[in-house]
């Protein structure tokens, strides 16, 4: 059976029959995230855009919640929940660099042997898992705490009564809401651009 039957392209058959070693191994192996590199970069950009939402979420907090932040100013404060946000941003940055490396190696030309292809696929799998699962969960947690803050001091008090600690308490690490939000927004734009670039180049 041909890779193109009845005028309909079969990308899996094409990869197995006429694709590169990398493409053949990618089709054959199990992957939790089988999306292409451009799609994964776009998904990372969306996650970082979600992290950038901390700025408008912080700006619209009620006054009772704002008082829980050091100095009473959520935008310039360094709440400990933002440590998780900075961690998520670092994860996405490292993972994006790894995915871009894989995409660059595929575009660079030259034969990719089986050993190198397996290495590139391992890098892609780890980067995808860490960024889309761990990083995504961390961003959801950060946004969830800020959304909780929109319930006012009473909502936060219920969290404290349940045994939690104040997520908006200060930390000596200089990680501000504005700093994390702007960095996340900038990186999100870069990843969307990278996604567009690789989608054009890898399909060429």
UniProtKB/TrEMBL annotation:
The lineage of its organism: Archaea, Methanobacteriati, Methanobacteriota, Stenosarchaea group, Halobacteria. This is Uncharacterized protein. The chain crosses the membrane at residues 41-61, 81-104, 125-148, 175-198. Keywords: Membrane, Transmembrane, Transmembrane helix.
